[in-house]
Amino acid sequence: MHNKIYNSFIDRKAKGIKSFAVLIDPDKVTPADIADLAAKCTAAKVDYIFLGGSLVITNHLDECVQQFKTLCDIPVVLFPGSPSQVSRYADALLYLSVISGRNPELLIGQHVLSAPAVKKSGLEVISTGYVLIDGGAPTTVSYISNTTPIPSDKDDIAMCTAMAGEMLGMKVVFMDAGSGARKPITESMISRVASQVSAPIIVGGGIRDAEKAYLNCKAGADIIVVGNAIEKETSLIKEMADAVHAAAPVLK
């Protein structure tokens, strides 16, 4: 089914099931690392593997995707920082438009350039409204995208931005404090966005412990993405996955 991953987002949201995604930067993993991560993600029942980074300088994205696909059954979703980060071996591509910024290149410009290659890849393409939130420190994504993040205490701006993205046709809203964020997105902001947006909401950046992952889910996040914390301590994978899955409603 061509929309298999997006449909899984929608189906899980409709059932109130929260999802956990591990974000992996191809620049920072070796084949041995991938084998270890695949085993730990499988054991923890991780729902998705997001693969990508703001600045990928190595040239082994295809190999990373293929190795994960060989070692586990977890869907691999590309989270690209540039048009070059496309691999036909993945299950889906988050086609990101930085709707929180005012840089036309990241709103539509790069998409125009990448569209033929993305179409040719045969990947499932999921249009994603990317909303960058201030995480208390300059991040790679804010620098690369040349955009100013939404202030962390401006819940209404985040809400209106997400609403606009959804009404423009974005299928998913991705709220991100960015890699290296000192502080994660507040529950109040997540709740405000979730109160007005029906699209699946992905939240990432600055999430360092299971409690925060759990609270973000309770506030309205549908998918929690963690990268940096897991790079430093892979044992957090199971702890965070358990916390996210525990946030789902109890079926009677």
UniProtKB/TrEMBL annotation:
Catalytic activity: sn-glycerol 1-phosphate + (2E,6E,10E)-geranylgeranyl diphosphate = sn-3-O-(geranylgeranyl)glycerol 1-phosphate + diphosphate
GO BP terms: glycerophospholipid biosynthetic process
Residue sites binding Mg(2+) per the record: 25, 54
UniProt keywords, alphabetically: Lipid biosynthesis, Lipid metabolism, Magnesium, Metal-binding, Phospholipid biosynthesis, Phospholipid metabolism, Transferase
Gene Ontology cellular-component annotations: cytoplasm
Stored CDD domains: PcrB_like
Enzyme class: transferase
Documented EC number(s): 2.5.1.41
Residues at which sn-glycerol 1-phosphate binds: 174-180, 205-206, 227-228
PANTHER family xref list: HEPTAPRENYLGLYCERYL PHOSPHATE SYNTHASE, PTHR40029
Protein name: Geranylgeranylglyceryl phosphate synthase
